[in-house]
Design a protein that fits this description.
alpha+beta; 38% helix; four-stranded antiparallel sheet; single chain
Length: 182
């Protein structure tokens, strides 16, 4: 006899049809689905409600993570644009103040900053200068933009101002020799 036929003959399906045939085939008695099982009532509704609740929890968690990622991703380009503007402005301010007599009047301007999305961002940029008793000069540049407003600031200190190019510097404490002395 073919091996496939033997295996097929010994495989019993667990269906109600097998249980009904058990009376005709005594060797199959006790196998298959019992006909004495009472149907479950109302369990489909409970199972469906639980499945919908689990799906709702998973969807809520996914949406919450997506909203959080969108917020954090949306805020970073604005902050990057503000910091980039501060890094561009600070060397200019230091160049203006590095020589004696150089001053900057505290001011604030509204300007447009380039953004990756293509739409420029309106930002307020301000500069302030404060002298230190030791002779150092503190330069602070601040910028703010966006809704809700995001702020960034950059601070630099100039230890001492250099003399103007081409000027003659005399060392302090030295007195020039008198002219015409014997």
């Amino acid at each position: 006899m073919d091996d496939r036929v033997c295996r097929a003959r010994h495989v019993l399906l667990r269906t109600s049809a097998v249980a009904n045939r058990s009376a005709r085939f005594p060797h199959a008695a006790g196998r298959g689905t019992s006909t004495n099982v009472e149907p479950q009532r109302g369990s489909a509704l409970v199972e469906t409600a639980i499945a919908v609740a689990v799906a709702g929890l998973v969807a809520g968690a996914v949406l919450d993570a997506a909203i959080l990622a969108t917020r954090s991703a949306g805020m970073r380009p604005v902050r990057d644009a503000l910091e980039s503007e501060l890094r561009r402005e600070m060397p200019i301010a230091i160049d203006l103040l590095k020589y004696q007599g150089g001053t900057i009047v505290p001011a604030a301007v509204v300007t447009a900053l380039p953004m990756p999305a293509g739409t420029p961002l309106a930002a307020r940029v301000s500069i302030s200068v404060s002298p230190d008793p030791s002779g150092a000069i503190h330069v602070t540049i601040a910028a703010s933009a966006g809704e809700p407003p995001q702020r960034a600031s950059l601070r630099a200190t100039i230890g001492a101002q250099a003399p103007l190019p081409g000027s003659i510097v005399t060392a302090p404490g030295l007195v020039p020799a008198p002219t015409g002395a014997p």
